[in-house]
Amino acid sequence: MSLNPAVVLGFFMCPKNAVNNTLLTYFLKRNCIATIIKLTKLSEFDDFYWQGCFMLKAVVCRLAFMWFCVGLFSKVNAAEPFVLVTLDDQDKNHVRLMKQVLVDAYAELGMEIDLRLLPNKRSLEAVNSGLADGEGGRIAGMEKVYPNLVMVSEPLFSLKVLAYTKKLDIKIDGWKSLKPYRVGVLRGAKYAEYGTKGMKRVLLGSFGTQLFKALEADRVDVVAIHESNNLALSGVKGIKVLQPPLQEIIIFHYLNKKHKKLIPALNCAIKQVKHRINKEVVGKLEKSCQALMNN
Hints:
The chain is α/β, with parallel strands linked by helices.
């Protein structure tokens, strides 16, 4: 067991006759009798214990100040993880990539993150309200809708938005190509909200797999969604991808504005992490190619 800094501080700040009471209270609260015995000579333990009992009233009076110190030092020295949220989906590939970059980037700053998944719109609202410290990754411009968000300008990665269909045979020329049709998109996905603005026949789904099931059942003519494994996860067959992609979206990390001082350091850290990941990927490809050539 490690000592709380407040206890160590107590040896220097408290009067001599309060030291025993402070330690006794601290460790008895935690049922750490073994720790008390280690900190005192066994023969002196009875004196230590009974002195604390007889001075219980004095201890109670001092507790308010001592526990304030303990709480204060605990918060400073045992900082809670930085809570990030992002949109949930049954295909977690983009979340894994996002987490890989962000965990390493925050580690460069000596920080630990806790990435949690929430429904699309709710994750943005959680960061905007301050319930979460940051949003894992979204397209640019979220601060225009959620004023308490600030964007980290170094991109995390990019994704293509594709149009999937069962029957249509059209060439894609941006989102306007889909206007005559029934379109299925992810609820809360801002790129889809902007792309389908003004369209009257739009079906919203919480998960990509739901959208492909709707396409299979002829409830929509086309599904517009970022590249993912949702089609494979849905088990739907006979679906094709229309070309070219509807658009390419760039994903950025966001913070609640109370953490905006972190942005310069995060920009640098994210850039370093991406460079390292790219080198690792290239290295693996080179080894694979070399192995094939040797065979």
